[in-house]
Amino acid sequence: MSYIIALTxxxxxxxxxxxxxxxxxxxxxxxADIISRKIIISNTKIFNIIIQHFGLTILNNDxxxxxxxxxxxxxxxxxxxxxLNNLLHPLIHEETQRQLMLFNSPYLIWVIPLLIENRLDHLxxxxxxxxxxxxxxxxxxxxxxxxxxxxxxxxxxxxVKRIKRLKKADDIIDNNNIKLKLDNIILKLHKKYIQxxxxxxxxxxxx
Length: 207
Ligand code: ADP
Prior knowledge:
Elements: E1 3-8, H1 15-24, E2 29-31, H2 32-42, H3 44-54, H4 67-76, H5 78-102, E3 107-111, E4 126-131, H6 134-145, H7 149-157, H8 162-167, E5 171-174, H9 182-206
Parallel strand pairs: 1-3, 1-4, 2-3, 4-5
Helix pairs in contact: 2-5, 4-5
Bound molecules: adenosine-5'-diphosphate (ADP).
């Protein structure tokens, strides 16, 4: 068992950039997006239900799922998003719980973009929010994903507002500045989390 740090933030805020740095310090990373991808790929039944629902046009030429197309569909239609969520959430939840219990490192990082939206904050011991302004966020997503402003806005519509997310934060990384010394910030947090984990498990063992 490890002390659980939930790493959250809007799309394009810098979650992967930050989690890569914790990973290079040897900290285990549990990634909600990887879990959901794995479930679709490794569970034939789920894969077939998705194709049956959206039609064969949701596939690439090689028979794999076209994630960009799926994303476009679910972010432009609320009812499709709800349908997919209902299908995947129980399995995602089960696999997440399994992975969260798997490690024995002092702490682990759980990258969970929709922590607040899906009310999962009770599963974490601490919440680290990566924060950027909406303007910077939109420009980074357009540059990274080569999608247009309308698509970005559809995605953002489904995510909680900055203020609401920040209210839940125990720690915040302000990732607006390109000249940010991210390595130093992560190292500081790393030391803090080791300390917090030590105190947490000490208290638990005393009880
Ligand atoms: P997320 O995982 O939250 O969607 P990413 O870590 O992929 O976000 O970051 C989004 C984009 O912004 C990436 O192209 C990344 O290289 C870039 N990026 C991240 N942090 C910074 C920063 N401090 N300055 C400039 N670009 C950044």
